[in-house]
From TrEMBL, chain B:
It is a multi-pass membrane protein. It is found in: Cell membrane. Keywords: Cell membrane, Membrane, Transmembrane, Transmembrane helix, Transport. InterPro entries: ABC_transporter_permease, MetI-like, MetI-like_sf. Residues 86-299 form the ABC transmembrane type-1 domain. One of its GO terms (biological process) is transmembrane transport. This is Sugar ABC transporter permease. The chain crosses the membrane at residues 27-49, 90-111, 123-143, 172-195, 224-243, 278-298. Belongs to the binding-protein-dependent transport system permease family. It comes from Desertihabitans brevis. Residues 1-21 are annotated as: Disordered. CDD domains: TM_PBP2 (cd06261). Pfam families: BPD_transp_1. Gene3D superfamilies: MetI-like (1.10.3720.10).
Length: 280, 310
């Protein structure tokens, strides 16, 4: 009797916990509901019933946003900048961390700390001098300026992640390779780098998202040019369409589709990447 | 992020591994650091040092800069925009860090259970953290318009008395901004805590239960002390991120109404790239830098006292 009563109470407890969380989730998801429903409404529909879900989805909003906002161009720019920056980050960051982790000298430790300092320094302090530097080198409104910036800006995180992983990785394999006569670069490329795959995954996930979403510096360097990335294009788009919210939301929807797709496909790795990466 | 520095020191001290084995290994050349160091020097080191110098000049990009001593900082103390920005930035940082940590912890504790819906909810709560802050800013700008969905929804569920001009009323605009930031990033804190919870040994909780500890006591005496490292990471990230807050504020309110939501990053940007007062704007950035370092130092000191071993 008492056992049955307890299990009934447990069941009720579980049920109310489940219900409570679902309720919290509904409140939390409300802006997403607004996002989707506004993107699918006609202006008349939006004015008449702002909260209801559209009965006749206005898919034309997406076509209009895509064409008038030149979002295809912006998305291509974002892909180019993100891919090249992430490739450079993995290349330069992993090999630098390798040297820093394998040399146990005061110098290598000092350089490592110098990199880590970059995790704290606000980019605002160097923002104007760096802008001037890019302008004097005639690099404004080019992919190059953005890629250089993103690589330098994200390197502290990348070096930190790779160095932490490398310190826990035994040096035996690469030593064996070197005994067999392989040079440093060959030993790194064929032995060490493949062993870094788990942390390379984390690095790619974190830096891709950071670079893809970045706004302030891209606004300064490539704003208003044909090279502008998605967040900058969306910012301009908002100004241009002022109060045509259904077009703005359709445009923003297009801009987040790539992120959401990757998130749903790789969410286990992404969540793990964030948790383990940030944990260090 | 000082945790990071701190851990680096700790792991070097405890682990003599590399040094011990150095004798029988060919040395990895320092040259491998050069490409990374070059990028880092151009993008971070040189501009930061240059900025640190320009903060004490009247540089405006048109004529040669002259040293003006502490003039920029004195002016900063009397100008209304940077003064509000300073107060707002501190308020945003402290309240975001505390509230987001609590909310993230609550979400993690709720989802670290056998709830049927836990995977779906985890995916949902974390999603905003991955999206561009610019888009989150515009989304909420619309949601919070006076005749927008937030007020409509409140009226629809009988809470019409709570409707507000969320971003237009100077007395609550800052609170609205803080709410948006927490909505976007609480999932990140949750994910960090979920990873931390996996490191809490089940046997320890069972042993405590056998000794008669209730649910609350197990949480307070076993789980929470073991989550201090996760708390340090989550709080450092949130703190440093919220001190530098720019994107969402810039697109949602532009710092207004009046100076109600100005942050140091937003004021700095306007002074530099709208008004062209490079020296003055860099002085604002230097203040921001000092605050980041001071907070990181204090926080690390404060939290380390609570750390225990599993």
């Amino acid at each position: 009797m008492s056992a049955r009563r307890r299990s009934a109470a447990q069941l009720a407890g579980r049920f109310s916990a489940e219900l409570g969380m679902l309720l919290a989730a509904l409140v939390f998801a409300f802006p997403f509901y607004v996002f989707l429903s506004v993107a699918l409404k006609t202006p008349a529909d939006l004015a008449a019933s702002p909260l209801s879900f559209p009965t006749d989805p206005a898919l034309g909003n997406f076509a209009e946003a895509w064409q008038r906002g030149d979002l295809g161009q912006a998305m291509g720019n974002s892909v180019v900048v993100t891919a090249l920056a992430v490739a450079l980050l993995v290349g330069t960051g992993s090999i630098a961390a390798y040297a820093l982790a394998r040399r146990a000298s005061r110098l290598s430790y000092g350089v490592y700390l110098l990199f880590l300092l970059g995790l704290m320094i606000p980019l605002q302090l160097g923002m104007v001098p760096l802008y001037q530097l890019m302008r004097d080198a005639d690099l404004l409104q080019t992919y190059t300026s953005l890629i250089i910036f993103e690589v330098g800006h994200q390197l502290p995180l990348v070096v930190f992640l790779y160095a932490g992983f490398l310190r826990a990785l035994p040096a035996d394999y690469e030593e064996a390779a070197r005994v067999d006569g392989a040079g440093t670069l060959r030993a790194f490329g064929s032995i060490v780098f493949p062993l870094l795959r788990p942390i390379t995954g984390t690095v790619v996930i974190l830096t891709s998202i950071n670079v893809w979403n970045d706004f302030l510096t891209p606004l300064l360097y490539v704003g208003g040019s044909a090279q502008q990335t998605l967040p900058v294009a969306i910012f301009a788009f908002r100004g241009e369409f002022a109060s045509q919210w259904q077009i703005i939301f359709a445009g923003m929807g297009i801009a987040i589709v790539p992120i959401l797709l990757v998130y749903f496909l790789l969410q286990k790795y992404i969540i793990r990447g964030f948790a383990s990466g940030l944990k260090g | 992020m000082t945790t990071v520095l701190d851990r680096a020191t700790a792991s070097r001290a405890d682990d003599p591994g590399p040094r011990r084995r150095r004798g029988r290994r060919a040395v990895v050349p320092y040259a491998l650091i050069v490409p990374a160091l070059l990028f880092y020097a151009v993008v971070v080191l040189y501009p930061t040092v240059a900025g640190g110098v320009y903060a004490f000049t009247d540089w405006n990009g048109r004529r040669a800069a002259t040293f003006v001593g502490l003039d920029n900082f004195v002016q900063l103390g009397t100008d209304p925009a940077p003064r509000s920005a300073l107060a707002n930035t501190l308020l945003i940082a402290v309240s975001t860090t505390l509230l987001q940590t609590l909310l993230g912890l609550a979400l993690a504790l709720a989802l670290h259970t056998s709830l049927v819906s836990r995977n779906v909810l985890r995916t949902l709560f974390f999603a905003p953290a991955l999206l561009p802050p610019v888009i989150i800013g515009f989304l909420w700008q619309y949601v919070l318009t006076p005749s927008g969905p937030m007020n409509d929804a409140l009226s629809a569920v009988g809470l019409g008395a709570l409707t507000q001009n969320w971003l237009g009323d100077p007395s609550i605009a800052l609170a609205s901004v803080i709410g948006v930031i927490i909505w976007q990033n609480a999932g990140l804190t949750m994910v960090i805590y979920l990873a931390g919870l996996q490191g809490v040994p089940e046997e320890l909780l069972e042993a405590a239960a056998i000794d008669g500890a209730g649910r609350w006591q197990r949480l307070r005496r076993v789980t929470l002390p073991l989550l201090v490292p996760a708390t340090t990471i989550a709080m450092s990230l949130t703190l440093i991120g919220s001190l530098k807050l720019f994107d969402q504020v810039y697109v949602m309110t532009g710092g207004g109404p009046g100076y109600a939501t100005e942050t140091l990053s937003v004021v700095m940007y306007k002074e530099a790239f709208v008004s062209g007062r490079y020296g003055y704007s860099t002085a604002i950035a230097l203040v921001l830098t000092m605050i980041v370092f001071a907070f990181a130092f204090v926080q690390l000191r404060g939290l380390r006292r609570f750390e225990v071993d599993a």
